[in-house]
Amino acid sequence: MSPVPLTVTGAEKLRAELHEMKTVQRPAVIAAIAEARAHGDLSENAEYEAAKEKQGFIEGRIAELENKLSNAQIINPALLNADGACVFGATIDLKDLDSDTIVTYQIVGDDEADIKEGKISISSPIARALIGKYAGDIAVVEAPAGIREYEILDVKYI
């Protein structure tokens, strides 16, 4: 599998989720399966089927998290020295040239993206348009709603 880029914060969140899955959710679903088995006939036991389905989901998510963490390329934005270029982990102040609004985004991994927190995925159209550009440049973004232009005001590595 190819490397999975993550910020330090993103890797910590994935580790916390993995710990929660292994120490809380997995034991809880095992207990639910045991309780459902105690009710007798498994062929018509909806609780048993639901618990087995949830167990499958939990085990799949644990495997996915372990795989991502084992292939993680953890990048600390504070240690970057990209000479002002927009790169993975950078926090970028942008001015939307259509509406004159100013927004701030951090380019993060796919698992960390949360637009409400100002974190955009490295694979998003806007991040792809920003990569390699500098303060003062104009980024042209081909979004589903049409072409948008952003002026890069500042690039920070925090």
TrEMBL record:
The protein's role, per its UniProt record: Necessary for efficient RNA polymerase transcription elongation past template-encoded arresting sites. The arresting sites in DNA have the property of trapping a certain fraction of elongating RNA polymerases that pass through, resulting in locked ternary complexes. Cleavage of the nascent transcript by cleavage factors such as GreA or GreB allows the resumption of elongation from the new 3'terminus. GreA releases sequences of 2 to 3 nucleotides.
SUPFAM superfamilies with a match to the protein in the record: FKBP-like (SSF54534), GreA transcript cleavage protein, N-terminal domain (SSF46557)
Record keyword Aminoacyl-tRNA synthetase present: no
GO biological process terms, semicolon-separated: DNA-templated transcription elongation; regulation of DNA-templated transcription elongation
Stretches assigned to the Transcription elongation factor GreA/GreB N-terminal domain: 4-74
Keyword annotations: DNA-binding, Elongation factor, Protein biosynthesis, Transcription, Transcription regulation
Family recorded in the similarity comment: Belongs to the GreA/GreB family.
Name of the molecule in the record: Transcription elongation factor GreA
Domain Transcription elongation factor GreA/GreB C-terminal: 86-157
Pfam families per the UniProt record, alphabetical: GreA_GreB, GreA_GreB_N
PROSITE patterns: GREAB_1, GREAB_2
GO MF annotation: an example: translation elongation factor activity
InterPro entries per UniProt: GreA/GreB_C_sf, TF_GreA/GreB_CS, Tscrpt_elong_fac_GreA, Tscrpt_elong_fac_GreA/B, Tscrpt_elong_fac_GreA/B_C, Tscrpt_elong_fac_GreA/B_fam, Tscrpt_elong_fac_GreA/B_N, Tscrpt_elong_fac_GreA/B_N_sf
